[in-house]
Amino acid sequence: MSWLKAMREKEPPEPVNPVGTVVIGTLYPEVMDTAKDMVRRSLKLAQFKTFDVGKGVSPQAFASKAKEVNADIIVVSVLLTAAKENLPKLISALELEGLKDKCVIMIGGAAVTKEDADKIGAMFGKTREDAVVLAKKIVEQKRNKP
After folding, report:
1. Which residues pair with 48 in a beta bridge?
2. Domain tally for the chain?
3. Mean pLDDT of residues grouped by 10 in the chain (146 residues)?
């Protein structure tokens, strides 16, 4: 069955007509990226254009990339409490770039809860399936906004 696992783990192709643009990464000092990669692949399969900023990324780097690619969504994987403590800095960086109301933030991971997401005005998902459902909902709401 390892061949089946290898097929499932393959990198999906870039979407031809993306439904939205996502910047994804882990916040400093996070070094684990397995969960982030699973979410990124799931979003890509759901036809989202994804830009992976990597692991251990500064809040400013997230904001800069989101501005550069005109992102709809910023997805942050948070597995360490130390990374969770940098979430308010991410919000500040987005505000400085004028993106606070242009990008929706989604967080998930072992170190965060729905309450943490609510505190910073972010969406929260526990699984990669949650991430896809939330991302679709976000772009649909943006599309229907007057």
Report:
1. 20
2. 1
3. 55 87 95 91 95 96 96 95 94 93 93 95 94 94 80
